[in-house]
Each structure stands twice: as structure tokens, then as C-alpha cells.
Amino acid sequence: MNTMLPDLPDQNEVNIRSQRVAERCGFVREGHIRQVHPHILCADGSYSGDYLYGLLRSEWTG
Questions:
Q1: CA angle 36-60-3, nearest 5°?
Q2: What is the pLDDT of residue 42?
């Protein structure tokens, strides 16, 4: 049986709620792309980046 895994886009590092949802669904943070969004300026003066999440087929329970 060929099971389709969910497609999870990059998660913006300032979107904490979205990160929590991904982690509750079993995704693991595997990478951090820093300053990928030069048009999004954070409160501390830095630029926003993305976290990359992954899920192995063997970890998928859906």
C-alpha cells in the first residue's frame, strides 16, 4: 500500500503556533534557514528565517 505523507511547508521562525502544531503532529525540526525573508523585520531588528521540518515514512502513523 502506498501511503501519501503530508506536505509541510517551511515554517516561519516567528510563527510559534505553527511550529507547535507541526511538532505535535510528529514532525521534527531538521534545519534553520536564517534571514530568508529580508522584508520581515523582527522586533529585535533581525530578519526572519524559516525552520525546516521532516517526517520519515516509518514515523507516519496516519
A1: 100
A2: 73
Q: How far apart are CA 41 and CA 20, in angstroms?
A: 22
CA atoms within 13 A on the CB side of 25: 17
List, run by run, the mean pLDDT of 10-residue segments along the chain (62 residues). Answer: 53 83 89 78 78 86 70
DSSP string, 1-60: --PPPPP---EETT-HHHHHHHHHTT-EEEEEEEEEEEEEE-TTSPEEEEEEEE--GGG-
Question: What pLDDT shows up at residue 8?
Answer: 59
**pTM, rounded to two decimals:** 0.66
| CA pair distance 42, 29, nearest whole angstrom | 21
